[in-house]
Request: fold
Amino acid sequence: MSLSRKLLMGMRVGAGLQVLVGIALWMGYWYSLVNVHMLIGVVFVLLLWTIAGIAISHRQSVGLAAFAIAWGLLVAGVGMTQQGLLPGDLHWIVRVMHLVIGLAAMPIAERLAGSPARSSLQPA
Reply:
């Protein structure tokens, strides 16, 4: 299994945990896990960027990799600032936006990690 695919597995686990904790937070539970949720989010973005970096270093899907780096900035930016965005009754819009933006990172990473040229590369 290539390094990119292993990192992608980490992103999948992170995405699952993020959705689980995020839904609990929406429902008013597990507020003590906000910092854990943020930490997993940071790791999630770092994994996305690492997969993008591997793609760039192999000169594979460079445009998509650059987009992944920008998307990671968006994921982190919205995640870190969402508490202050649109407070009040309409904050649910920010929550849904945060969920969609975060989950949209997965198909980007899947495409980058699943490139046939890189999938056969093994870590050194």
